[in-house]
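Predict the holo structure. Ligand: zinc ion.
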Amino acid sequence: MSNINVKQIKETLEKEKASLINQLDALKNDKTRKGGAISADWPDQAQEVENDEVVDQLETLELNKLKDVEAALTRIENGSYGSCAVCQNEISEARIRAVPFATKCINCS
Ligand SMILES: [Zn+2]
């Protein structure tokens, strides 16, 4: 692999992972709290349902990102980090810097 600083990338990924876990916890707490309080009037209930949908979508996004980050960390551990999961070509340094958890090269993504 080229002169990419894997140690630095690993630190970035670990920070990202911690922050995603925090955000997911916050989202979960948000949902639990809302589940307990049912509003008396309809407009509020409708609003809550909409918010729940947004929270669910966010949760899915963050979970997917967390998976990507964890996969990247695993790849650093086993030495396969930096090569494309599809074509095995090296992922460009510019791409890795922009998206440190990328598992595919620009052509395969
Ligand atoms: Zn590729």
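DSSP finds three helices and no strands in the chain. The helical segments are 6-36, 42-78, 93-98.
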